[in-house]
Amino acid sequence: MAEPHPTGPGGPGRVHVHDANNTKDVPWYIPIIPALMSPPLIDLLENYAGMPPSEQEAHLYRIRDLAWEVFPMPSVGLFWWLVLGLSTHPHYRQLIELMKSPPTDPSHPRKFLDLGACLGQDSRKLIHDGIPSSSVYASDIFPGYESVGHALFNDAPTTHGHFIAADIFDSSRSSPLVRSRGTWDAISIFMFLHMFSREDLLLAIRQVLLLLSAEPGSMIIGAQTSSTEDHEEVLSTPFLKEGVVRKVFRPSKETFKQMWQEAALDMGIGVKVWAEYRPRWELGETEVEQNYSESHAMVAKDEEQRGKQRRMFFTVERL
Ligand SMILES: C[S@@+](CC[C@H](N)C(=O)[O-])C[C@H]1O[C@@H](n2cnc3c(N)ncnc32)[C@H](O)[C@@H]1O
Questions:
Q1: Structure confidence at residue 241 (pLDDT)
Q2: What is the whole-number distance in angstroms between the Cα of residue 116 and the centre of ligand 1?
Q3: Whole-number Å distance between alpha carbons of 40 and 35
């Protein structure tokens, strides 16, 4: 099996910190929090982070600016990190059951990884839903998101040391993700894989499969933007600096399933892959997505492509 190539200074679809346009004068640095403050989020902030509802809004504006300084992701500007996407996945109960089931080896408690976690709202929701914080980890390419996540959820003492700063494409032995290969019972990849070109998506799939435990029933769970017809979109200014262009791939659910199946087959891993288009998951997301779509160079330019865009939920289960 061929090893994915190590991180280079700019694969065709990768976003690099030096390419970012840091200005707040972009349409996705929106002036007000959209209707994303769902009852489960208010509950999480109140009963997990200990923040009374009356203080939550001001707190979230402060947190957004801290996260923006780390890296000005459109999702940060749009308060996307308030969407508890994982908990709305149709297989969320299965994930909880897996994480609560006794480990085969009692000396190795179950482990969950939120990959491309940004501020880690999904992993905090999982802890709030009863999974011990000692079993829950988050990872992102930008180390600075760790302390902002702690500030958001006021949980540095309980989740300290559970953030893995790493690039998913780094296959060198010094990568903490590489050192953790084969140890994860469950891996969440929400709104992550659609950030890459077709070539990088294939590499990322292999990297994620290498992370998964060999135990039958271990699972990868996620969601992302997809399309009923495969196509590539161009990412450019104002998200990226003038002159910097990257491509992102929007696979159909059929193509996406096939990519996982072929990679797993090539790696000698048995998997069952499920993928479905689903309605949007949170009240207010339509408003946010519209804002995002109309202003963001990442989004399909023509109406025909836009009409084909879908939110896809997926699960990859080890046989
Ligand atoms: C759109 S955000 C999604 C965040 C979160 N999962 C959610 O659903 O709100 C994608 C995240 O992937 C991270 N990321 C991008 N490229 C990465 C890479 N090569 N390795 C690891 N993380 C990466 C970004 O920093 C960002 O936090």
A1: 75
A2: 3
A3: 13
Residues in the chain: 319
CA of 302 to the centre of ligand 1 (A): 26
Contact of 124 with 151, CB cutoff 8 Å: no
Q: What is the DSSP letter of 121?
A: H
Protein residue closest via CA to atom 11 of ligand 1: 116
| Cα end-to-end span (Å), the chain | 20
Please give the pLDDT value at position 284: 45
Distance 104 CA to ligand 1 centre (A): 31
User: Is the pLDDT at 10 greater than 90, yes or no?
Assistant: no
pTM over 0.85: yes
**For the CA of 83, the nearest atom of ligand 1:** 9
Q: Cα–Cα distances in Å, from 37 out to 43, 45, 284?
A: 10, 10, 9
pLDDT band of 1, cuts 50, 70, 90: very low
Phi, psi of 115 (to 5 degrees): -95, 130
The answer to whether residues 12 and 197 touch, using CB atoms and an 8 Å cutoff, is yes
Ligand 1 touching residue 201 (CB < 6 A)? no
Q: Which of 44, 118, 240, 312 to mutate to test the pocket of ligand 1 (most atoms within 8 A of CB)?
A: 118
Q: Which domains does the chain have, with CATH numbers?
A: 17-318 (3.40.50.150)
Residue 120 scores a pLDDT above 60: yes
- Evaluate: CB of 88 within 6 angstroms of ligand 1: no
- The alpha carbon of 224 and the centre of ligand 1 are apart by a number of angstroms equal to 11
Q: Is the pLDDT of residue 256 over 50?
A: yes
Lowest mean pLDDT among 24-33, 174-183, 282-291: 282-291
pLDDT digits (tens, 9 = 90+) for 202-247: 999 999 999 999 999 999 999 998 999 999 888 777 767 778 888 8
Q: Is the peptide bond before 238 cis (omega within 30 degrees of 0)?
A: yes
User: What residue has token string 């702690």?
Assistant: 150
